[in-house]
Every structure is written in structure tokens, then in C-alpha cells.
Amino acid sequence: MKKIIVQKFGGTSVADTNKIKHVADVIIKEKQNGNDVVVVVSAMGHTTDHLLKLAHEINAAPSERELDMLLSTGECVSMSLLTMALQSKGYDAISYNASQIGIITENVHTKARIVDIKTDKLKKSLEEGKIIVIAGFQGVTPEGEITTLGRGGSDTSAVAIASALGAERCDIYTDVEGVYTTDPRIVPNASKLDEISYEEMLELAHAGANVLHPRSVETAKQYSMPLRVRSTFKYDDKGTLILGVDKMEIYKPVAGVAQDLSQVRVVVCDIPDTPGEAATLFSSLAKENISVDMIIQSYARKVSQTNDIAFTINKEDLEKTEEIVNKVKDKLHAGDVSFDDNIAKISIVGAGMIDRPGIASTMFQTLADAGINIRMISTSEIKISCLINKEDSQKAVKALHKVFNLGCDTIAEVKGTLPDV
Amino acid sequence: MKKIIVQKFGGTSVADTNKIKHVADVIIKEKQNGNDVVVVVSAMGHTTDHLLKLAHEINAAPSERELDMLLSTGECVSMSLLTMALQSKGYDAISYNASQIGIITENVHTKARIVDIKTDKLKKSLEEGKIIVIAGFQGVTPEGEITTLGRGGSDTSAVAIASALGAERCDIYTDVEGVYTTDPRIVPNASKLDEISYEEMLELAHAGANVLHPRSVETAKQYSMPLRVRSTFKYDDKGTLILGVDKMEIYKPVAGVAQDLSQVRVVVCDIPDTPGEAATLFSSLAKENISVDMIIQSYARKVSQTNDIAFTINKEDLEKTEEIVNKVKDKLHAGDVSFDDNIAKISIVGAGMIDRPGIASTMFQTLADAGINIRMISTSEIKISCLINKEDSQKAVKALHKVFNLGCDTIAEVKGTLPDV
Predict the structure, then answer these.
(1) How far apart are CA A182 and CA A406, in angstroms?
(2) Which residue of B has its CA nearest to A55?
(3) B94 near A CB under 8 A
(4) Which of B23, B52, B58 to mutate to test the interface with A (most CBs of A within 10 A)?
(5) Which one, of A220, A168, A231, A235, lies nearest residue A9 by Cα?
(6) Cβ–Cβ of A73/B76 closer than 8 Å?
(7) Which of A165, A260, B171, B332 is the most buried (most CB within 10 A)?
């Protein structure tokens, strides 16, 4: 039996008809390697933004069901155009949307999770020698309701389909050449990583590296599906392979440095020091689906019997969080609440730091030597994050990238410009 | 039980978000009349043309299956946006595509015929008090393949859904106010018809009146579903009601005059006068799905034992017809073939002409008096068509409209300009 390779192409890779023709060539190269090829595709360029704009012109708060009906059309357009491109180059190809295949999700709109993927149609089409092109980002409930998978949805579709088909590998084609030790826009000699573990990639993704959505990495890890991040426009470049840590040779304790400028620090002062108060706060946030990242609770003050809780959230959730925290504050008889978005989260990530002591202290010392004040710290087995002032962010990334010896001799090609700090 | 009204809105009625909001108001008025409302919608404005352009940039001859996958997205966009508009005005509404409902068609792409419509979901949603918005133009095969219904497809969807639901009436909303006695761009005092029979409407539609596609009228006739053609932008105007001739009062022998400038006249000379020769020609054309309209065969010439056959086809089929006719010509050892597109087909249509003699002679005499040469004639029970030179077309329409006393005292509002002759 032939090996199955799943390829996923993002919106920038299929932004116009010329790019779609180029993508067809990339697919055909993989087919010519003797593999069966299954392709997952996102909506063309700014299609999704355009559809969202139309929706908001009509309804300030459109229903999530109808949003899913609307947005899922974007992938159906790119999928059929890409199939036509393959056919025009003489290859037998067929497109399927999620309803046709049976990419079954929970009955939740705009952020559904995949629960099952039917493979009958896919296997039959592969047996017939066809290249299959599938609409990413979308699913269907057992009742036939159309759902979408939320952010990074097409990556997740691709990994889930690869797993369901027992594919050899899932290639995520994008406009960068792979995963870098840090953002090349900050550190021009950042190195492209040949390999990285699921765990490290997850931490980097959570820490602000935008190359892959954490959900797709989690799914890949769960099914041990090797993932390759590679450039649509440089087929010969092998990109970065993401796989189980047990299969990797680890040379350096730190694999990468990431910055995240999208966090807001929330401080709730003078919370009475009685059991369950913190739980009330965080369960209220969890109920609204707000992810809290770093959390610090101060020691209780002896005199007032109160303490302060500081935590970080994503900017996107700021409005909802303000509302919830102000409500909970009154209930808890807590003191002032403050919000600070002038912060950056700087993280170092590496599976190799598990059995090498001193990594954390090197990080703290490096930041101190650069005159950078650390405002919060959080750690996991393979990650250390420090919250610092936003204006120190690039200085911190450069210093850490250097001290952990992550640079290479070549200068990475830089796409786009850095956002203003 | 409430009465069900099916409303269909075409592409110009939902061309932008403001128009979609207006359409929502029209729907709500019908709902406020105490009726259950099911809406069928076309793609926004030029969406279909845009998608076709993309397809042809990629593949000069895109596969029909993938074209259907592509084009069916257009209606899904307008359907969800219209549903959002209804929701934003406080009405409970839900959209369904053809796959979700089960608008079952034959397994033919780009021009499938509807074979069945499942009504379970629709009835349930109506019971819940919802306004239903359905994507027109599309269907699904029992195997889950997406199909489209071809020209006039959304009208056909609407009529078929109305019939399946046992609706009270199917309203076709468009940018004209109804069916006119002739094109108001030619005859400014053309009258809007209050009523017209299915049969007359069919003949008018075949004779070049573009207001409704013949297929939708055929379906309405088959199920005796009353159809109303009315303006999206003038809700209080009742438009034209199309219904069975048995329910109509017929005052005038002729209901309308139509011109069709899209025909090409084909003449095949010197066909040997042996049995089956004409059949060979027309069966070859039928095999390629080319509709032949008027046919005249000359008497066989005594000396040469040959005759000439003249017929008309649609301009769109010219290329294919040339190919076939030239092939058949050689096989039949026929003589010259000529093609003439400098022609117009002028038709008068009226259920009232059945039992009133003299209508045909009045038509021929009127054209003769106007100095117009008749090149071919064809008749049905309720229609007489004459082929004339294109430059005489408007003169003919004006003269016939006058002689059959079809004008009214008011001048119709004119949309667009006439095509150059």
C-alpha cells in the first residue's frame, strides 16, 4: 500500500488563482514521489475577514450558527478551485466538504472539537488514484449542523484527517520556512530548527510563536502524527519536523525564545484571605471560556487578613474579564482592580532543560544584567516565562537568544514588519 | 394551521448588505400578515460571475462537479446573511442549504432536476415559529454529491419547495413589477398583467420574456402552485399572478407580445429526399442537448430529389451546432449550410386565441402593412411566432402591441436600456 501524505495549505498560500496553480504544482510533486496525497485547504487570503465584515454590517452580534454557515463557504471555494487546478494539470482530483466526508464534531458553533472522521469516501477515492482536496476549518454534527473549529482550525482538520487515515506525515505548508529559535524580525540570525518536540512546540505556541495553533500540535501529539512545517514557496526546503521527544536527539537545553505581546495583567487587591475566594474568581472566568495564563497570589497580609491576586489574560478577553472581575470583586468585598497591557511575556522553551539545572537562573541573571525588571514568573517542566515591561521585550529576546547560543551564521529571510510596541 | 408563503429573492434583490436588510423587511411584512414564511434566495449580485471568472482563470474547462461545488457557495453566503438580518430585527430565523434539507436531484451536474424534497426539517422549524431561509439553485444527490439546477434554478427551487410544503402561493420577487404585455423599453405604455395563465407564461418565457425561467413555470403548472411575480422594492404592488387558465377570466385574445433576439437561423440545402434524413440531423443535435425551435422543410424538388431544411437555435449553441451540422452534412451528402443571426422572433401569446379565429391573419396583415417580411412561421395552440429581420423587430412589436389593443394609459417605469440591434 502507498504511503499517505496529508498536506495543509493556509490562506496566504491560496490567496489568488496564480498561487492556487502553484500549490497544485507542490501537490503534484508529492504525488509524483509515489505517495497518495490528501490536501486540506483554508479559505483564500482575506475571504474570512470579508465575510465577517458583511456579517457585521448586517448584525452587530450575528448568531454563531449562521456565522458557521457563512464562514464555512470560504474553504469550499478554495477547495473546488484547487481541485480544478489539479485537473487542468492532468491529475485526477476530487473535493469534499466536511459534511460529505463526515468530519463529525460536537454540537458547538465557532469552536467545535472533532469527535470522529469517517474515512470510507476518502479511502475509496484514494483507491481510485485520486488526489483528495478537503475544506479545512469545518465540521458537521451528527444532526447535519455545520460547525467550524475556531482558530487554527484548518491545521487541526489536517492533523485529525492524517491521524484518521494513518498517514505517514502531515505537512503544514505556510509562508515561513519552519519554526525558528525566535522571531527573525527581532533576531536576524535566528536559526531554523530541523526538529522540535510536540511538547516544545506546544509551549512555544502558547508562548506566542504564531506558526502553528496549539490545538493542532496537541492533536498530533495525541496520535504521534509527525508534523512538518514548511514553506509553500520553497518545496526543496524540508522545514521543521515536529515529533515525539523520544525520537529526537537533543543537543541544546533551550530550543527557542518566544515573546507574547497580547497579554494583559490583571491585579485584584485586598481579597479577604478565606478559603475558596480565588476559586470563585477563576471559576467565574473559566465559565466564560477565558484562559488565564500566569497566576500569582501574594502572601496574606497579617493585619488586614487579605491578599492580592495577579494573573494574565489575552487582550481579546479584556472586556469580558473586566465585567466578570468587577462583579466578583463586589461579591468578595475585594479592593481595587487594575489592568495593565504594557507588558510582554518572554519565554524560553526546551525539552533539554528537564535534566539541566541552572537554566532558570541563567535566564533571570541575563535579564538582570540587561537592566530588565521581572514582574511575574511562571514555569513548566520545559518552559520558563517572565513577565516584563513591553518596551524591554526585544532587548530581552536578543539577550536570551544570545546567552543560550541559538543563533546561526545565516540571516533569516524576514517576512513582514514587527508590530509597534 | 397557518398558511405557508414561499418567497424567492433573486441576486439583484440581495446585491449588498443594505438590500439584504430591505429584503428582511419584506419577509417580516409577510410574517406579520400571520403567515408562515419560507424564503429561497439566490447568490448576491455578481457573485456567480465572479466565481466563474476565478474558475476559468484556473481551468479553461472546469469539471462540472467542481463547478457545482464552487457555485453552490454563493447561495450559502446570501442565505446566512439574510438570516442574520432577520435575527437582528428580532425574528427567529434559520438557514438551510440543500444538503441539510434534502433537496434531492438526479446525479447530473450543472443542470440537475429535482426528484424529491424532504420536508421534516422544514416542518419542524415552521412549528417552532421560525422563518426559514433556503439556498436556491442547489441540490444534492442521494449519495451526497452537490448539484446545481442550471438557469433559473432558484425560481425552480422556490416553486418545488412551495409544492412540497403545500404552500398557499410562491412569490417571485424581482426588480420588475410583474409580467408586461411586452417589453416596456420598446413600448412605453405596455400594461402590467394582473393575471396570466401558466401556459401563456410558458410561451412568453420561451418566446424571450426573461422575467421567469420556463422550468419554474412548468413546475408550478404541474403542481397547480399559484406564482406571483412582484417587485422587491414595491411591496404594496401585487405584481402578476400566474395560475391555471381554468381559474382566469380571459378578456383579450392576446396576452402579450415578445421578441427574442438570441436565435440563429440555420439552413441546410439540398438534402437528398430519402426517409430519415431529417431525423439524422435533429437526433444528432438533440444528443448534444441543443434545442431546436422553429423548423421548416421545403417541398422536395422534382428534378434533384432534394429539399432544404431551415431551423432556429439559440446563439449559445452556435459553435456546437456548426460542428454537428457540418459533420452530418457530409454524411447526408447535402449541399451548402448557412447561418444567419440577423433575425428576430416575434411572438404573440394568449390563451384567448384558442377559440377566436383570425388572430394569425391579423398578425400577418399587421406585419405586411408595416412593410415587414416574414421569413418563417411557427404556431402552437396559444402562440404564433414569426421570424423577421432583426432591424424590423421593434417596429413589429409596436405594431402588434397596438393592433391587439394591449396598451394602457400609464407609462411603465423602465429599467436598463435595450440591447443594440
Answers:
(1) 9
(2) B81
(3) yes
(4) B58
(5) A231
(6) yes
(7) B171
A69 close to B (CB below 8 A): yes
DSSP string, A348-401: EE-GGGTT-TTHHHHHHHHHHHTTPPP-EEEEETTEEEEEEEGGGHHHHHHHHH
Give the long-range contacts of residues A278-287, CB within 8 A, separation 24 or more: A278/A309, A280/A328, A280/A331, A280/A332, A281/A309, A281/A325, A281/A328, A281/A332, A282/A311, A284/A324, A284/A327, A284/A328, A285/A313, A285/A321, A285/A324, A285/A325
Helix (H) or strand (E) holding A170: strand A169-174
3-class secondary structure, B173: strand
Distance from CA of A100 to the nearest CA of B (A): 6
Measured in degrees and rounded to the nearest 5, phi and psi for residue B390 equal -55, -40
Q: Does A62 touch chain B (CB under 8 A)?
A: yes
Residues of B whose CB is below 8 A from A66? 80, 83-84, 87, 95
Contact B84 A63 (CB under 8 A): yes
CB A91 within 8 A of CB A167: no
**Interchain contact, A59 vs B21, CB within 8 Å:** no
Show residues of chain A in contact with B88, CB under 8 Å.
Answer: 58-60, 62
B360 and A CB contact within 8 Å: no
ipTM score of complex: 0.83
Residues in chain B closer than 8 A to A146 (CB atoms): 97, 100
Q: Work out the minimum CA distance from B327 to partner chain A, whole angstroms.
A: 29
Tell me the whole-structure pTM to 2 decimals. 0.84
A20 contacts chain B (CB < 8 A): yes
Within 10 angstroms of residue A398's Cβ, the number of other Cβ atoms is 17
- A296 in B contact zone (CB under 8 Å): no
Describe the crossing of helices A198-206 and A214-222 by its angle, rounded to 10 degrees. Answer: 160
Helix, strand, or coil (residue B138): strand
Give yes or no for A58 touching B (CB within 8 A).
yes
What is the average pLDDT score of chain A? 90
Among residues B35, B48, B243, which one has the least CA distance to residue B135?
B48
Beta bridge partner(s), residue A6: A38, A170
What tens digit of pLDDT does each residue of B335-381 get?
Answer: 889 999 999 999 999 888 877 778 888 999 999 999 999 988 888 88
For B117-161, how does the pLDDT look when each residue is reduced to its tens digit (9 = 90+)?
999 999 999 999 999 999 999 999 999 999 999 888 999 999 999
**Looking at beta carbons, which residues of chain A come within 8 Å of B69?**
76, 79-80, 83, 95, 97
* Residues B200, B247 contacting (CB under 8 angstroms): no
Using only C-alpha atoms, chain B has a radius of gyration, in whole angstroms, of 23
Is there a contact between A206 and A259 (Cβ–Cβ < 8 Å)?
no
Neighbouring CB atoms inside 10 A of A264's CB total 20
Cβ proximity of B248 and B351 under 8 Å: yes
* Rounded Cα–Cα distance for residues A224 and A238 (Å): 19
First-to-last CA distance in chain B? Answer: 53
Total length of chain B? 421
B77, A87: Cβ pair inside 8 Å? no
